[in-house]
């Protein structure tokens, strides 16, 4: 199954960073533009896999690229930081995930004898 999430990319002084607003806590970094793109895709797949293993619901992609940039600008403003630089970009990232059978194991029957 493939899910397509909006991702925000930022250029820092020594590297690039990225995060997916629809997947809180999912971030990626890389020394190059290509590396951060690869790393955020892998991070998203790993993040979702962990959510599946924990039985957590997988958030549906809901933000557009524009909404992700607006979300980012608002978060920076609320934190008292400078607005996004022109090097800050948003794009869509496609994440391939395998849906696991997350049904709980069948309850074991217990027999009581008297």
Q: Could you say what the CATH architecture is? A: 2-Layer Sandwich
Gross morphology? globular
End-to-end gap: 51 Å
What is the percentage of strand-forming residues? 15-25%
Average pLDDT, rounded to a whole number, is: 86
In terms of structural class, how would the helical and strand content be classed?
Answer: alpha+beta
C-alpha-based Rg, rounded: 19 Å
Largest sheet composition: 4 strands, antiparallel
Widest sheet: strand ordering: 3-2-1-4
User: What portion of residues is helical?
Assistant: 25-40%
What CATH first level would be assigned?
Alpha Beta
Question: Can you count the beta strands?
Answer: 4
Q: SSE order, as H and E?
A: EEEHHE
Counting copies of identical and different chains, the oligomeric state is: single chain
> Which stretches of 5+ consecutive residues score pLDDT under 50?
101-114
| Continuous helix count | 2
Q: Domains counted in the coordinates: how many?
A: 1
CATH topology title: Double Stranded RNA Binding Domain
